[in-house]
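INSTRUCTION: Work out how this chain folds

Token vocabulary: learned, describes local backbone geometry

RECORD BEGINS BELOW THIS LINE
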Amino acid sequence: MLQVLSAVSGEAIAEFPAEDFEGKPAIVLKQSLVKCTGFSRFRQRLLHANDSSVCADDDHLTSEALKLVLLAFCPATSDNHDALVSACVSNSPKEVEALLLLPVDPDLQGPDGWTAMHVAAINCSFWLMALFRFFRFSLVG
């Protein structure tokens, strides 16, 4: 059994059959945790239970228990919005994902009322639009 524990309280958040995730990247587990936490994978940090080191998204899982930290968004600043919009204008998925992992709120609006998703749509960046849609869907559903 693969246990996911709260890093704060130590209480079990979720338990999964180990064979469902063993050998798979941690990002797969994070996507499964969206349903029970309401937090997108960008706002989740998994830690190894034995030493509290960070489990990267591409780390392959074992049956070891993991701790989960749920993050609040970074403080809303014009710098965060500008960085996210700039990454969208440059059509840079890696940069956008890095900002979302801080986690920067993708719904930040600039003085014009536009979000980064507006810019991605104007630039016809379907990959970025899908990423933002996934992010928003994860928060709602």
Remarks:
- Strands lie at 2-6, 12-16, 44-48, 54-55, 66-70.
- The mean pLDDT is 89.
- The two ends are 25 Å apart (CA to CA).
